[in-house]
Write a structure and sequence with these properties.
Radius of gyration of chain A: 15 Å
Strand order of the largest sheet of chain A: 1-2-3-5-4
Oligomer: homodimer
Largest sheet of chain A: 5 strands, antiparallel
Strand content of chain A: 15-25%
Order of helices and strands of chain A: HEEEHEEH
Largest interface: A-B, 33 and 33 residues
Shape of chain A: globular
Distance between the termini of chain A: 38 Å
Chain lengths: 137, 137
Amino acid sequence: MECPLCATNRGDLVWQDECCRVITGNDSAYPGYFRVVWSEHISEMSDLDACARRHFMDVVLAVESSLRAMMNPDKINLASLGNKVPHLHWHVIARFADDRHFPESIWGCEQRCAPTRSAPDCTVLAALISIELDRVD
Amino acid sequence: MECPLCATNRGDLVWQDECCRVITGNDSAYPGYFRVVWSEHISEMSDLDACARRHFMDVVLAVESSLRAMMNPDKINLASLGNKVPHLHWHVIARFADDRHFPESIWGCEQRCAPTRSAPDCTVLAALISIELDRVD
């Protein structure tokens, strides 16, 4: 069976380099939900060498910092699961105390109907990601 | 209200350095569940400077590598959530296709009663974590 993260972008492309891409999570309940996908089809962080691990986390945390700056969330959730799609990718999710699952994970039980929030502008988000990465290089 | 991760170890101590500690997850359904806790009370990865972020992830991924070597799991799950306890910590979980929630996250719906598995020997785990960290330094 073809890997869905190899076959397509699987989300709107926000940012990319030669190693990975940032895509929208496409979940209307979570406008601050993005995925960071490693380009090569591997399954675990520890399959990467030390340099690649660090670069990938730099990108993940650049998305985190950018979402904090743009959305001022109550919490950031980070996760690399891949039980259903074992192609290395991170979930970066801006969480709010009044969102659908808070304080549960977004994979837990729904707690409430949530207010609608605007998604961050993806052009601005991409620019902030690049600025954050320049800071850590 | 006092932070539970500041007040106590909150799990059996497996490994520690001056920055962080590895503790058992104490979940009988998940013997390969460990937490990596940053010592200082901060809430997000992006509150750390670049050097500290990298060290913390090196420890998280040393736990991942060690669990893979000791337990040969079907998947590793990594997560930094902190919605209930906003003191920076990572969940590192060895997952098996026949465990209680697979392929859902452990915060999702239970899928089945799971077979009992042995927990890894914490002394061996601590030794492997140190060896892994020596490799990336």
